[in-house]
Amino acid sequence: MSRIVVKVGGAVAGSSAAAILELTAMGHEVCVVHGAGPQISREMERFGLEVEFVDGRRVTTRVALSLVRASLARVNEELCAALGPPAVGHSGDEIGLHAVPMPALGLVGDPLPCRPPAVEATLAAGKIPVVAPLGVGPLNVNADEAAAALAVGLGAVTLLFFTDVPGLLLEEGVVGRIGAEEAERLLGAGVLEGGIVPKLHAAVSAAKLGVEARIGETVVVA
Questions:
Q1: Residue spans per domain, the chain
Q2: What is the CATH number of domain 3-221?
Q3: How does pLDDT run across 109-129, given as a tens digit for each residue?
Q4: Helix H or strand E segment including 202
């Protein structure tokens, strides 16, 4: 039995349950980390708050953090309902997802690899932990980075990104396989933009620490 961490984007959370359940039916232990990016942005705009990102991290004031938590809680509940009885919802700040504060961005954290006892207990019970990416503080944590940190800490074999993009797109099309060093070169060159940037950063971090990462059709390896 292998252990897999699945990161589910807020845009595809509702349609990901079947694929996650298929992984568990194949005998894998699966931990799910979800985002809520579109939902959070809509709520912030509704309340007249500026939506601002720096390197894939959302600038988060105290007021914005309350909207982040509420949006994550709704997505967590919906995803758990879609997965059914095996799913157990967790909020990262309540189970020991630690992160290094990044005060320049407000209440934001850079997550550290960790093995939360609550997640281990859920997996040991044969269930699916579904984790909302909040760090102890609380701090808003990028969901891609949270998934990578948990994948490393939990000793996962694979980190899967379920997303609405097909993978890493370059001029020749979707990249099937890329080494971590080459991915870092692309990121450093600034030729990539949009949601692939934080995903690729997270995939590289996981790959360099021994976890194979897949973003759609793209495999990132050490």
A1: 3-221
A2: 3.40.1160.10
A3: 999 999 999 999 999 999 999
A4: helix 196-208
